[in-house]
Structures are given as structure tokens and as C-alpha cells.
Amino acid sequence: MEELYKIYIKQCIELAKNGEGHVSPNPLVGAVVLDKNGNFAGSGWHQKYGEPHAEPNAIKNAEQNGFDCKGGTIFVSLEPCCHYGKTPPCADLIISKGFKKVIIGCTDPNPKVAGKGIEKLKAAGIEVISGVLEEECKTLNEIFIKNQLQKAPFVAIKTATTLDGKIATKTGSSKWITAEKARKQVHRLRNKFDAIITGSGTIIADDPSMTCRLTMEEDGICGRNPIRVIVDSNAKTDPNAKIFADDGTKVILAVCENIEDEKISKYPPNVEILKCSIDAATGKLDLKKLTAFLYERGCCSLLVEAGGYLNGAFLKAGLADKVYQFIAPKILGDDDAMGFVRGFDVAEISQGKTFKIQSVQNFDPDILVTYS
Ligand code: AOF
Ligand code: ZN
């Protein structure tokens, strides 16, 4: 029986991922309905922020398929809500439909729910089993969980390195380290995150557009561009850089607060200039304040796609929750080639930042190692 629960919760996780790029600041949630005889009746996911949750969508789908939910089971990757937000409580709907059993992946960290959804279902006489594939369900919503518990954005560093950890040669040549499949996956990541953070050095070296170029025809999903943020203390970035192209997505240039006005007047009107304070400890732009500001502006998740120094600064500030490292089977083996983390000077192995390997995926001929 337990194996069967895992199969359906796994299905809920996969359904939930269809909401990537559309549900922030809400969690990704999927649900599957079985009728009273254990037949698959329907499924659904939370598709868009402000719209119905996974459970009503799955129940509607089951009913459209001609099934009755009475006496049935509903699987859901996150605890059903019990509060009125933009939509009514899912727990009430589950009770009113006469479900006998609810199988849950993990509890909802939102203090308005946090176990109260489960209590409500149990109080109505429904059998509730929680914690099926709990770790996978928590990973699915690592962004939402960090946001709810710490009121801060989830920050991930993405990098593409050679197998000796380099992102460019000593001359700055970096195109291309990884191949087509890995680079496509970067676009999928961009679709998942609310904002991308990069540095002026990366813009000057590579002139990237940092957009999400996925199409329905080729990739099965229509990508959307995240907000782009450039950390550029002294406003060195060329105003004609591709990243400033006005494609309707916000571009923020984060500069130091003492910047002279003439240095920032050269940027096009679609670029928002954000004056940031300087961190007394590092003498550099205060990344903690920048990320806190972006969170207030609705950026729940930030993907850092930058060079070694900015990556190092995020790590040093203790801001990186995760690292996506695409590794190409190439060696540069050059003392002056640039590493993906710089300025994170430690003398002892014990002082190094340690991560846990979360997954290793193949994007032939490269791999993606995810650390958290
Ligand atoms: C569920 N199923 O599919 C989701 C849930 O403003 P609302 O009504 O959309 O509520 C948002 C909150 O509901 C969100 O913070 C989280 O606690 C929960 N999300 N709950 O039962 C779902 N997306
Ligand atoms: Zn709900």
C-alpha cells in the first residue's frame, strides 16, 4: 500500500511542476483523485497565482471524467489549506465532497495552515496520512518553505564549469563550456526563478540577454522572462548592453548609494536604478539588503548567474541556499583561468563551505550537480 501512495505522490510532484513560473509567491502543488474503488478518477495542479488550488482542479477533473468523489481518496503534495486567501479552503471542499482518505506529501509551512488543514480533515472523520515522499515534496517547495519560515528569498547560484571548476580561460574566453542540452536546462531554471542576478563583469565579458527562451513547439513550455538585476556598484555597464533591451520585463541596475548622477543618467528609461548601501564589513554593495529589498518587491526566488567574485560574495554573505553546477568534461588546467568562486579565501579545509549533493543529472555530454 505504501508503495502505491508513493507512486501517486510522485505523480502529484510531477503535476505540480507544470506550475513553475506561474504560481509565485504560492507553492507548487499537484493532486490526484481516486474513486471509492481505487480507480484513477482525475488530477490537477495549481496553475496560476490567485487561481484555484491543486485540489479543486483535480476534483473538477475527476467529476468531468464522470467519477464521484464520495468515499474516494485524494493525494496532494502539500497539506490542503484551511484558510480563506484568494481562494476558499481546500479542506472544506474535500470534506464536502465526502472523501474517505487524504494522503499528503508534506505539511504547509504557512502559519495560517501549518497542520491546521490536517486537523480539520481529521476532525471531519477523514483518514489522513501525511509525510509520503516528504523530502521530495519539501524540495519541490524549497522556495516557498524558505520564504514562509525566514521571510527571505531563496537564492541559488548557477554556474557552468569545466571539470577543473573554471568558467573562463585567462583571456576571458567562455563560449561555450557546456553544450546545447545543458544550456537548454538553464532556460528551464530561468523560467522557475522570479529574478536573475548578475554582475557588471559578466555583462561586460559576455553581453548576455539573460532571457528565458523556451517555446511551446520545441520545449513543451512557454517560458517567461524573469526580472533581471545587475549588481554594478560603479555603473560601469554599457547602456547599450543586450540585457537592457526593453522586452517588457523589469531590469534593475543596483549601484552604490554614493554614485554620481551623471553615471546613471546614461541608462534607458526601462532600467530602474536602485541605490544600495555599502556593507561596512566588505566595503561592497550590501547583498543582504539587496536581496531583502527584492523580496519585498515580490521576488521570492533569485538565480545568481555571475562570475567568480559575485558568486563568492553571495557565499561569503551566507546567502546561497543552493548551487546548480553544470560540469563539462573539459580541463583548462591553467593557473590563471577563472574559477567559479573567488574571494572566498579560507586557509583550512574545515573553514570551507560544505554542501550536500542533492542530485546528479545527465545533460549529455555534460552533467548537472545540484548542491544544497
Ligand atoms: C493548497 N493547495 O494548491 C496551494 C496551497 O491566496 P490563496 O487562496 O491562493 O492561498 C495561498 C496559500 O495557500 C499559500 O500561501 C499556501 O499556504 C496555500 N497553497 N494550498 O491547499 C494548493 N497552492
Ligand atoms: Zn488550498
What coarse outline follows from CA principal-axis ratios? elongated
* Helix and strand sequence: HEEHEHEHEHHEEHEHHEEHEHEHEEEE
The counted number of beta strands is 16
CATH architecture of the largest domain: 3-Layer(aba) Sandwich
Set out the fold topology:
Elements: H1 2-16, E1 30-34, E2 40-45, H2 54-64, E3 73-78, H3 90-96, E4 101-106, H4 116-123, E5 127-130, H5 134-140, H6 142-150, E6 154-162, E7 166-168, H7 180-192, E8 195-199, H8 200-206, H9 216-219, E9 227-231, E10 251-256, H10 261-264, E11 271-276, H11 287-296, E12 301-304, H12 308-316, E13 322-328, E14 338-339, E15 357-363, E16 366-371
Parallel strand pairs: 3-4, 4-5, 6-12, 6-13, 8-9, 8-12, 9-10, 10-11
Antiparallel strand pairs: 1-2, 1-3, 7-14, 13-16, 15-16
Defining traits:
binds zinc ion, Dihydrofolate Reductase, subunit A, binds ligand AOF, nine-stranded mixed beta sheet, 372 residues, alpha/beta, 23% strand, Cytidine Deaminase, domain 2
Short description:
The protein is an alpha/beta fold. The chain has helices spanning 2-16, 54-64, 90-96, 116-123, 134-140, 142-150, 180-192, 200-206, 216-219, 261-264, 287-296, 308-316; strands at 30-34, 40-45, 73-78, 101-106, 127-130, 154-162, 166-168, 195-199, 227-231, 251-256, 271-276, 301-304, 322-328, 338-339, 357-363, 366-371. It has a 9-stranded mixed sheet with strand order 11-10-9-8-12-6-13-16-15, sandwiched between helices. Strands 2-1-3-4-5 form a 5-stranded mixed sheet, sandwiched between helices.
